[in-house]
Amino acid sequence: MEDYIQIGNKKVGGNNSTFIIAEMSANHNQDFNKALEIIKRAKEAGADAIKLQTYTPDTITLDCDNEYFQIKQGTIWDGTTLHKLYEKAYTPWEWQPRLKEEAENEGLICFSSPFDKTAVDFLEKMDVPAYKIASFEITDIPFIEYIASKGKPVIMSTGIATLPDIEEAVNACKRMGNEQIVLLKCTSAYPAPIDTVNLRTIPNMAETFGTVVGLSDHTLGTHVSVASIALGAKVIEKHFTISRSEGGPDSAFSMEPSEFKEMVKGIRDVEKALGTVTYNLTEKQKRSREHSRSLFVVKDINKGELFTEENVKSIRPAFGMETKHFKDVIGKKASVDIQKGTPMTWNFVER
């Protein structure tokens, strides 16, 4: 089995570069031109993909304001109902084929998070190259099976999932003959407190489930996403907005273009720094070895004189005999006259 999956023209996982997703979410604020601008600015900031969300208020929840539909879990959206929130947050479906086309014209991969079967059917007609399952849908096993049955890569956030939940979701994909799975470590808090992220779960998730892994990051700033690369994250997802000052349901925990660009640079730098397992030296490192230590004659020595700890020392630079031979030299006689500052060699030792 390959250690990577293919999403559009990108190989995701293995030794390939990190797949960086800009999540548009609700940051268009119901303005189509703003959505287009987000796509363009995401490309300029270094994203590989733009992700949409495909639902309507009526496909994701019920227009009801009784206690069950009130948002009151200590979130930034408390005080409204689910239906009212999604009325503000959804991306009109008639936009989405055009947004995908514009994204692809920019060189971005475009896919979406569907939230019911009708959204999946709609996205199939758009021929999206992958599907994202949001954290709060990971426990909907029939829905996951339906998505997996389409035979495309499935990226799943695990923000509200227990270990058995993740196992059940992964098995649901596999039952449908789909092993193109990416699991994203995620904390479903908006923004997410740093001490709830638990990045060490990422390598454990890869080992436990044998999938490509990554991070859906709701923290503020760039450092958590960048750090996750060193722990094996191969996919990074961050909410993206033109400016937090424009407001909107998700703006408070979204990245602006300059921040996103900084994050991308950090990720690419860490990828280079991780490199491969090697003990070989670069040409520059080999040259730098000239400044390491070796044995030098530090006082004038006459032929026949003994080498001592006073006239031979381990000093910088490295043009003399290796220091490990120090004890082999001390007490031996000099075969020639030697001037102070001369690198020590075996030719100076009387046989």
CATH class of the largest domain: Alpha Beta
Mean pLDDT: 96
Separation, N- and C-terminal Cα atoms: 62 Å
What strand line-up does the widest sheet have? 5-4-3-10-9-8-7-6
| Whole-number tally of structural domains | 2
Shape descriptor: elongated
How big is the Rg?
30 Å
* Second rung of CATH, namely the architecture of the largest domain: Alpha-Beta Barrel
Provide the β-strand percentage band: 15-25%
Share of helix, binned: 25-40%
Structural class: alpha/beta
Which ranges are low-confidence, i.e. pLDDT below 50, for 5 or more consecutive residues? none
CATH homologous superfamily caption of the largest domain: Aldolase class I
Fill in the CATH topology of the largest domain.
Answer: TIM Barrel
Q: Supply the number of helical segments.
A: 12
For the secondary structure, the number of strands is: 12
What's the SSE pattern? EEEHEHHHEHEHEHEHEHEHHEEH
Q: What does the main sheet amount to?
A: 8 strands, parallel
Domain AFP-like: 294-351
Keywords: Transferase
GO biological process, one term: carbohydrate biosynthetic process
Organism: Clostridium muellerianum
Strand-helix topology:
Layout: E1 4-7, E2 10-13, E3 19-23, H1 32-44, E4 49-54, H2 57-60, H3 82-89, H4 96-105, E5 109-114, H5 117-126, E6 131-133, H6 141-148, E7 154-157, H7 163-175, E8 181-186, H8 201-209, E9 212-216, H9 223-230, E10 235-239, H10 257-274, H11 283-288, E11 294-297, E12 312-315, H12 326-329
Helix pairs in contact: 6-7, 9-10
Description:
The protein has 351 residues and is of the alpha/beta class. The protein has two domains: 4-55 and 90-274, TIM Barrel (Alpha-Beta Barrel), CATH 3.20.20; 283-348, Antifreeze-like/N-acetylneuraminic acid synthase C-terminal domain (Type Iii Antifreeze Protein Isoform Hplc 12). It contains twelve helices and twelve strands. It has helices at residues 32-44, 57-60, 82-89, 96-105, 117-126, 141-148, 163-175, 201-209, 223-230, 257-274, 283-288, 326-329; strands at residues 4-7, 10-13, 19-23, 49-54, 109-114, 131-133, 154-157, 181-186, 212-216, 235-239, 294-297, 312-315. The strands form three sheets. Strands 5-4-3-10-9-8-7-6 form an eight-stranded parallel beta sheet. Helix 6 packs parallel to helix 7. The longest helix is centred in the C-terminal third of the chain and has 18 residues, at 257-274. The radius of gyration is 30 Å and the shape is elongated. The model has no long low-confidence stretch (mean pLDDT 96).
